[in-house]
From TrEMBL:
<dbReference type="InterPro" id="IPR002525">
    <property type="entry name" value="Transp_IS110-like_N"/>
</dbReference>
<dbReference type="GO" id="GO:0004803">
    <property type="term" value="F:transposase activity"/>
</dbReference>
<dbReference type="GO" id="GO:0006313">
    <property type="term" value="P:DNA transposition"/>
</dbReference>
<dbReference type="GO" id="GO:0003677">
    <property type="term" value="F:DNA binding"/>
</dbReference>
<protein>
    <recommendedName>
        <fullName>Transposase IS110-like N-terminal domain-containing protein</fullName>
    </recommendedName>
</protein>
<feature type="region of interest" description="Disordered">
    <location>
        <begin position="178"/>
        <end position="214"/>
    </location>
</feature>
<dbReference type="InterPro" id="IPR047650">
    <property type="entry name" value="Transpos_IS110"/>
</dbReference>
<feature type="domain" description="Transposase IS110-like N-terminal">
    <location>
        <begin position="8"/>
        <end position="148"/>
    </location>
</feature>
<dbReference type="Pfam" id="PF01548">
    <property type="entry name" value="DEDD_Tnp_IS110"/>
</dbReference>
Length: 214
């Protein structure tokens, strides 16, 4: 039966994967669970076949690994798989739906990304996260200091003014205990090396140039 498999739907997870495979006639040829460590060994034992995987976390990694074994791998957006779900959602039903959806002639697939492409995306996402965190910290500093009647103009210039107030131990408007939290949040304070709030986060291209020059 295993040698007759032509199409497989693979529902990936952190530990336990679900496989649903059919033959050329559409009859079920294999339906089983696999632990993470046995996935590659299982696909090594199969003839070249079409493998469908939902585009999600780690899907690009598994797609590259299975392509290296000679399989034809397609990543499917989750919203395009859902209409093919025939019964209550579970791993086995998801794998079956993926197996059917991947054979549709009008299905739209997600291109498999290389490690280099994913690295650039990771840099973009981390930079976006850091920018959001900087905004959150800035808003928190404004809110905390406003409780003591200390306000500043909107923008980075205003944050710089607030950090100057925080670092000024002679400013009696801020109690010593209240000074600790804003100082730590802002990355500044007595005995600490201050962080320039106007410093811009490097972009992914700049990071790549830094690596090339090192």
């Amino acid at each position: 039966m295993m040698s007759n498999v032509t199409t497989i739907g693979l529902d990936i997870a952190k530990s336990v994967f679900q496989v649903h495979g059919v033959d050329a006639a559409g009859e079920v040829a294999v339906r089983r669970k696999l632990t993470r460590g046995r996935v590659l060994a299982f696909f090594k034992s199969l003839p070249r076949c079409l493998v469908g995987i939902e585009a999600c976390s780690s899907s690009h990694y598994w797609a590259r690994e299975l392509i290296a074994l000679g399989h034809n791998v397609r990543l499917l957006p989750a919203q395009y798989v859902k209409p093919y779900l025939k019964r209550q959602k579970n791993d086995a039903a998801d794998a079956e739906a993926i197996c059917e959806a991947v054979t549709r002639p009008t299905m739209r697939f997600v291109p498999v990304k290389s490690p280099e492409q994913q690295s650039v995306m990771m840099l973009h996402r981390v930079r976006l996260m850091l920018n959001r965190q900087r905004t959150q910290i800035s808003n928190a500093l404004r809110a905390h200091l406003s409780e003591f009647g200390i306000v500043a103009p909107i923008g980075r210039n205003g944050i710089e003014q607030l950090l100057v107030v925080i670092n000024d131990e002679t400013d009696a408007r801020i109690p010593a205990d209240a000074r600790l939290l804003p100082a730590n949040a802002g990355g500044t304070g007595p005995g600490r090396k201050g962080t320039n709030p106007r410093k811009r986060s490097p972009g992914p291209g700049e990071c790549a140039r830094d690596r090339a020059g090192s």
